[in-house]
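Dear Dr. H.,

I hope your travels went smoothly. While you were away I took the liberty of generating a structure for the chain from your last submission, since the lab meeting agenda had it listed for discussion. I wanted you to have the full record in hand beforehand rather than looking at slides cold. The sequence, exactly as received, is reproduced here:
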Amino acid sequence: MGVPMAPGRLPFLGHSVAMLRGRQRFTSSLRDHGDVVRVDLGPMTTYFVTTPQLVHQVLVTDGPRFSKGAMFDKFRPYVGNGLVLSDGAFHLRQRRMVQPAFHRDRIAHYAETMQRAATALTTSWTPGEVRVVEDDMQALAVTVVGEALFSTELGQRAIAEVRRSVFVVIKQGMVRALSPSFVEKLPLPGNREFDRAIARMRAIVLDVIASRRAEGVADHGDLLSMLLLAQDEAGDGMTDQQTYDEVLTLLTAGIETTALALAWAFHEVARHPDVERRLVAEFDEVLDGRPATFADVPRLKYAAAVVNEVLRVYPLWILMRRAVEPVDLGGVRLPVGAEVIVSPHALHHDPASFPDPHRFDPDRWLSPSADVPRGAYIPFAAGARQCLGNVFAQTEVVITLATVLSKWRLVPVPGKPVRTKFTSTAYPSGLLMTAVPR
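The corresponding predicted structure, in token form, is as follows:
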């Protein structure tokens, strides 16, 4: 069976807003050309999967028949072989070792940090002050993940370095992943900044790991303790390098997702007064003026719907997988080594799965008929590679919304529309909002 060829190419170089919006339009348009569409990324031929059913096959049903794709290969030399990048038996071993760190009892403990950090942030606000909301949410996400990882006094130096360097690593790392290989070798300011940030974070995290081992590993109630105490079926723990790789994975994946989700959530809530009214009413009813806890999260159903909708509207642009054995995908026989692309953005904006997909509508998650096809909604991927921190991230967003909106309104500054920057997803830029006591 032949594979339809996309009408045009999808260049990786260049990162203007217009070009990246064009990419999103391009990937969304591919569903009109078939279930599996050939797309040329420069010299590399890829197969773009457009239906939820085939996406579910790639990520879940036939997940073991795929490894991470070419885009992820470019990260590995810089950010290591943590769960986001590792494959095969090693990935399974690491996932089993890391998973206990995200047990519900642990997340309940981290939720106290989330609430405390959000309260500290809003306590620093003054009535009528204009806040740069994306900066506030980035700072909050660093505090939460940093304190969840490094609870001891020694870890405070690591958190300070994370504040300085992690967004350089995230943003410049994605630029490298989406650009031809020769670009990373050029003496560009972004490349030098990225290399320095990686070197600083590596030095401080390895120093904290070495100090913990020298003290004698104990459970300090943080994620690093769990990583250092974890053992595989043979009774072996992680090496320093393996621990560092997982720490860097947790930092980069955990901070970006929640910071973006929170910034866009406040943006959308402010744009939709009825959503804000219903959120605040739910917080008042469930919490009755007390701080939100992990036990409250299942009762905050409308807040969960708001978070789901934010994650639908603002997901990753693409994921890549590589076939490690021949695979039949919708009647197309893919050979070993075939590169497959899945677009969460295109899936989340497919009107067949989400009617009126460009409308922000939390109620679509509360309707009795809200039956989303498997594979249509993948904000944290799916299958054996689904993000382990998905409950952590969703809990953080709900608790932060509850903490902030119970006390404050964030009102857009007139004449200052939010701009959007793109790497692997949409970043708000200049999200200026006035803090008004409720």
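Two observations you may find useful: Residues 7-17 have pLDDT under 50 and may be disordered. The chain has 15 helices and twelve strands.

With kind regards,
E. W.
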